Amino acid sequence: MTELEDLDRRVSWHPFTQMAGWSPLVIARGEGNYLIDEQGRRYLDGVSSLWSNLHGHRHPRLDRALRDQLDRIAHSTYLGLAHEPGIRLAEQLLEVAPIGLTRVFYSDSGSTAVEIALKQSFQYWQLKDQTKKRKFLRVGEAYHGDTLGAVGVGGIELFHRVFGPLLVDSIAIPSPALDPEGARMTLIRELETRSDEIAAFVMEPLIQGAAGMLLHPPGFLTVVRDLCTRFHVHLIVDEVATGFGRTGRMFACEHENVSPDLMCLAKGISGGYLPLAATLATEEIYSAFLGERSELKQFFHGHTYTANPLACAVGLESLTLLRESTLASAQTLIEPMRQALERLKNLSAVKGIRQCGLMAGIELATNEPFAGSAVCDRIREEGVILRPLGNVVVWMPPLTLAISELETLETATRRAIA
Ligand code: PLP
Question: Which parts of 97-252 are beta strand (E)?
Answer without folding.
Answer: 101-107, 135-139, 170-173, 198-203, 207-208, 214-215, 234-238
